[in-house]
Amino acid sequence: MIKVGIVGGTGYTGVELLRILTVHPDVTVSCITSRSEAGMPVADMYPNLRGHYDLAFSEPDVKTLAACDLVFFATPHGVAMRMMPELMAAGTRVVDLSADFRLRDLDVWAEWYGMPHESPEWAEKAVYGLPEVVRDKIRTAQLVANPGCYPTAVQLGFLPLLESGLVDPSRLIADAKSGASGAGRQGKIGMLHGEVGESFKAYGASGHRHLPEIRQGLSQAAGVDVGVTFVPHLIPMVRGIEATLYAELRNPADFDRLQALFENRFRDEPFVDVMPFGSHPETRSVRGANNCRMALHRQEQSNIVIVSSVIDNLVKGAAGQAVQNMNIMFDLKETLGLEAPALLP
Amino acid sequence: MIKVGIVGGTGYTGVELLRILTVHPDVTVSCITSRSEAGMPVADMYPNLRGHYDLAFSEPDVKTLAACDLVFFATPHGVAMRMMPELMAAGTRVVDLSADFRLRDLDVWAEWYGMPHESPEWAEKAVYGLPEVVRDKIRTAQLVANPGCYPTAVQLGFLPLLESGLVDPSRLIADAKSGASGAGRQGKIGMLHGEVGESFKAYGASGHRHLPEIRQGLSQAAGVDVGVTFVPHLIPMVRGIEATLYAELRNPADFDRLQALFENRFRDEPFVDVMPFGSHPETRSVRGANNCRMALHRQEQSNIVIVSSVIDNLVKGAAGQAVQNMNIMFDLKETLGLEAPALLP
Amino acid sequence: MIKVGIVGGTGYTGVELLRILTVHPDVTVSCITSRSEAGMPVADMYPNLRGHYDLAFSEPDVKTLAACDLVFFATPHGVAMRMMPELMAAGTRVVDLSADFRLRDLDVWAEWYGMPHESPEWAEKAVYGLPEVVRDKIRTAQLVANPGCYPTAVQLGFLPLLESGLVDPSRLIADAKSGASGAGRQGKIGMLHGEVGESFKAYGASGHRHLPEIRQGLSQAAGVDVGVTFVPHLIPMVRGIEATLYAELRNPADFDRLQALFENRFRDEPFVDVMPFGSHPETRSVRGANNCRMALHRQEQSNIVIVSSVIDNLVKGAAGQAVQNMNIMFDLKETLGLEAPALLP
Amino acid sequence: MIKVGIVGGTGYTGVELLRILTVHPDVTVSCITSRSEAGMPVADMYPNLRGHYDLAFSEPDVKTLAACDLVFFATPHGVAMRMMPELMAAGTRVVDLSADFRLRDLDVWAEWYGMPHESPEWAEKAVYGLPEVVRDKIRTAQLVANPGCYPTAVQLGFLPLLESGLVDPSRLIADAKSGASGAGRQGKIGMLHGEVGESFKAYGASGHRHLPEIRQGLSQAAGVDVGVTFVPHLIPMVRGIEATLYAELRNPADFDRLQALFENRFRDEPFVDVMPFGSHPETRSVRGANNCRMALHRQEQSNIVIVSSVIDNLVKGAAGQAVQNMNIMFDLKETLGLEAPALLP
């Protein structure tokens, strides 16, 4: 059994990790920390876990955490980077669901997160854990930076187009939409049901923290610096991300090759589903599941490739992908704990 | 492996059976029928099942069904009763999720369902499958009538009060609320998102088909004919039922005994969770799970017992309870396939 | 033109007052206060008001307010009672949308609101402003306590039954459900979209602040102290309240008289609509409008009267009723500013 | 008083016309037709209209309609074009909310709507009624083709960019999202709450009927044939459209001029609101109102102009714009009946 610790367990990614790990046969959760809720049983905060866990939240303690085989960080940015040197020194392996170790360029990180980075050494050593791109490095990594929710949906959809060089990398557009759980579980007025319900809007349209992460990932796939426009939107629902991606095909004749290109790219990927050309993936088809489903479209004789890509922001966009990364790191079957179908309707 | 057939698989209870059975270790689904969609792969209609099933819908055929160990009926009322005699003669076991075999009194059945009952023999032999009440009979039953969604939430919440005789059985009120999936997957204008979204209303307040089923179950628990008022309401959401139940305690001093009474009644029930006195169960705490969670309340010195009871209408209110019944019928661990926690948020 | 001031304008009742007053021909809003947002144009906070108001929020100042013909308080409880003596002394008229002056018994008030009442003199003089009950007193009142949202829906539905003495006043049950805007616009975790969306629950089932207000109003209508159980629920939507009311008819033969009784009781009421017997009022049929719609039901030969009553919690349950009260106080046509139909769908 | 008839009044645009016309001082609705519901009072179908209309649906009759000053068609496509010649001959003026007269090129019309056009003469004479573009022609038109919902949001947002020639007209992208009422009020399974609720998806991504209409309007604004990609999405809510528009600025230095360009373009438009640069218009800020609100964005030093544009699909996207057109046609104040602010929250 892999002994797991979770830091910052009171948020939505915390409870989602617990939910997924319940059905994982090879894992035991030995501690889950929360400064604010120390002492409270997790099942009191999250009644869906009643009968599944006896665990209570505890004060974060590096020694206890260091004794785990793996620690998940489900914290706001700025927390993991401070605790990382000590944990790394102890040899503990970590999957960090926060943004602390996602960006290579720490100046960019500092600019977008409003503070200097405090663990540059580990920022360099961290593996950006998108399994569909760097599975081998994840296997041996001590520290995996779990990708953001939007960046997962956007990168997976663009990957085959950029890796193949078939599209103009300077003209990428990602119009993405997310349910409200993506904003986390903090008492912000703007995220009240009374504000979010029955309404739709763009946000962060002039610049969102996931933009540099997306640009970094896409540039790596393309082999050149890409030009990408990314606009997130808030959907009046709880879970799910849909990203509609637009790219310009260099040679319109290549349209005929695209479906096969995508299917081949993801043929061996257990969690990426290329649907038939012209399909419309629904977010509910991945609700609670670790899948990314996507489909290709073309309008008349246009040279614009349209990709619609959906994930559950809390699963493939956070806790599920973290467990997938853990499975890879510990040489387990990659789908362990992640096999149940999505909840539809 | 238990060989299972599903009749009428295109509705919400059909897809939910498939979803649950995916993770059931001892079951294989050998056929799923649909007149209207024969030939279509189930994963084309329900993309959450992509990668989980190769099965396609087939024309209903009694011979094929009779060769199964168990057949689930997920059909509108009136279908199962016509096919039942032949299946029963063949020795096949059945869990009927429709209303055909739920009522003892076939005159009442005919009145509420607007047609004469065509299988009175099996209506008499059928076991009304609420495991928390008749587990032993289910074990050996050939035909189990799976309870309705509202009746499940309402009966479980009232059971300890009626069995103990502590409340006046002539003054029961059940104010129940359901998500829209309870109405099934038919193209009715009244169930459009444009009609249901952002609105709330009672319906069937002058009489709903689940009323006689509720009355039958509560009367059996009380040992006398009860007087019960049942008003269902439509919530602008997809899944979940909450029932707020009101009963008058004969002796207000008994209030102190109620929490223990409930806890004892359900102590060994794997799917009934009595929460601490004064809790407020949320439908999301059982979303996708086979649990019923309930809690007791009292207002000041009132003699009115308030019980709030929640289930997922498609799980404990339909497909989950059907699988629970199957597990009991085949001497499997009762919780097989039903162990994952609810999806929250 | 009536010169109006609004205290505490940043909440949902504040913006709703502004929305309604926009189309009121005889009113001009001369000031709207907010400590936290002083200086901000109201249209910056509430973009639906862009083009309708040039006004900015200002610091609350009693002198400025006293110069108004009418001041609306749209504040949390505890604010209005402190400013009231000075405003009353200045002769200013007030409609208080908060709970400060709703209860006659100040010990009960202190118990439920957790502080002593600071303006007992005006608590005694205040008129509880349910126009359908005390229109004449409102006309001449200096201070009107605007009823709460639940109490409005519940009282209107029970009124004819209690005034006529046809039901047992000791056995009243009010099962009420509200959209999330009823909780106001404060950054509480429990009211996040991620918590409220796609879920349903009871809350305050052991006692809610509107219970004593409901009991006071119903007791006055019945002429005796009533026994009433009131359980509120949270609907995953923004606006609207539905209350399903249960009462026991003393003489079942009276059922035949009930529809006429209700229609006669509200015949001259511009905002109460008794729908045909057996109807199911929807909250959307009153969205944005000052109407209360209700309908009666009976189940088979039961002696339980069922009333379903719907209002928009922000309109007839708050700002609309406040404007209705203002119209009465200033001898205007009672429906001024409140004539547009509800927004459906 | 202008005597108005409505053909096809049972859908969402029908009830919305009735709602708006209730508060219009210069209009009387003399008939509203429905083949399926003839004889039913409109207030029985739409209870928000109880107390506002005595009218019942009647069989469509050209003579009666011809006696109106203005007839609104709120019918599915294919109906208006058949009745138009007779009405036009009678001199009746018409605003057609259906798609029948929106496209100039009738081959394109036939291709997208699957039938030959039956009134080519009037298709040529019809004025495409986007007031912000052709107000003068609307004034004297006998037949106005009311623009579609998506085309309204998309055209208004692109107009200043195309008219000014500042962007590349061959690379326009419109990523649009709509609430479910846009699909009308027909019993389609795909539009059930159980299907639409808590989910998000693109649809019509390979080609939607509004694409040729959008292309026609944008090409006219640009003075050249534009290349536009248009992907609609379905939001789990009832009302509202948000369109995020992407265009490539020929000269990035022009970014500084854009806000002024937009403000000047719409300075005199009563229903178009250019919000401050970097704002995020919400659909709820126009719910129930005839406004289009929009805002501009730029990401870092990109040359991509981002415009977010919101309307209520049933108001500025249908019934409200139709009333605006009527006001123009009859030389009334353009805002009559359309002055109330949006319903927020």
Automatic annotation (TrEMBL), chains A, B, C, D:
Residues 3-141 form the Semialdehyde dehydrogenase NAD-binding domain. InterPro entries: AGPR, AGPR_AS, AGPR_dimerisation_dom, AGPR_type-1, NAD(P)-bd_dom_sf, Semialdehyde_DH_NAD-bd. Catalyzes the NADPH-dependent reduction of N-acetyl-5-glutamyl phosphate to yield N-acetyl-L-glutamate 5-semialdehyde. Belongs to the NAGSA dehydrogenase family. Type 1 subfamily. Pathway: Amino-acid biosynthesis; L-arginine biosynthesis; N(2)-acetyl-L-ornithine from L-glutamate: step 3/4. It is an enzyme of class 1 (oxidoreductase). The active site is at C149. Pfam families: Semialdhyde_dh, Semialdhyde_dhC_1. It catalyses: N-acetyl-L-glutamate 5-semialdehyde + phosphate + NADP(+) = N-acetyl-L-glutamyl 5-phosphate + NADPH + H(+). HAMAP family: ArgC_type1 (MF_00150). It comes from Marinobacter algicola DG893. This is N-acetyl-gamma-glutamyl-phosphate reductase. The gene is argC. GO terms for biological process: L-arginine biosynthetic process. It is found in: Cytoplasm. Keywords: Amino-acid biosynthesis, Arginine biosynthesis, Cytoplasm, NADP, Oxidoreductase. One of its GO terms (cellular component) is cytoplasm. Its EC number is 1.2.1.38. GO terms for molecular function: N-acetyl-gamma-glutamyl-phosphate reductase activity; NAD binding; NADP+ binding. CDD domains: AGPR_1_C, AGPR_1_N.
